[in-house]
Write a structure and sequence with these properties.
Layout lengths: L10 H7 L4 H11 L17 H4 L7
């Protein structure tokens, strides 16, 4: 099953994947901050197209 890598997830997407575990969501978002720092690492991502179309967490 395709999903978006953790470093690229939004808090809402992570929350849906992690069943609302707020501590895990916070930890994932903190790791994601590596991409927002000064001189972030270059990241290349190959994302399965199915990850873009698979619904997570239900409708709002």
């Amino acid at each position: 099953m395709a999903s978006v890598p953790g470093l690229l997830q939004t808090p809402e997407y992570a929350r849906a994947l992690l069943n609302g575990d707020e501590e895990a969501v916070r930890a994932r978002m903190e790791r994601r901050n590596i991409l927002a720092r000064e001189n972030p690492p270059m990241v290349h991502v190959v994302l399965d197209e199915a990850a873009l179309y698979r619904e997570r967490g239900g409708k709002r």
